[in-house]
Structure formats: C-alpha cells, structure tokens
Amino acid sequence: MRVSNNKDNIDWKNVIKKEVIGTDGLDLGEVVEIGDNFIVIQKGLFNKKST
Question: What would the pLDDT profile of 8-17 be if each residue is shown by its tens digit?
C-alpha cells in the first residue's frame, strides 16, 4: 500500500470504512482503524482477517 506523504491534506476520519486497493489493483480490504503510526485493514465478511 502506498501512503501519501502529504498527510496534512487528508481527513483521516473519512478514510475509515473505505476500500483499499493495492498498486497492482489487488483488493486489500477495508480500513477499520487508524492510529498515529498504523492503519488496520480488514478483509472478508464471515472469516474476517485483519492486517
């Protein structure tokens, strides 16, 4: 996942529940939590997996 270095222009609260797509077009999941130094992405509906 590529993260923009221009973090001052991103409203991080609006990123939660958004779909994450990798640079190769791979569906990585959905953003469920954002911390100061991390982003939690969850994939799946029934057998959920967080990364």
Answer: 688 888 999 9
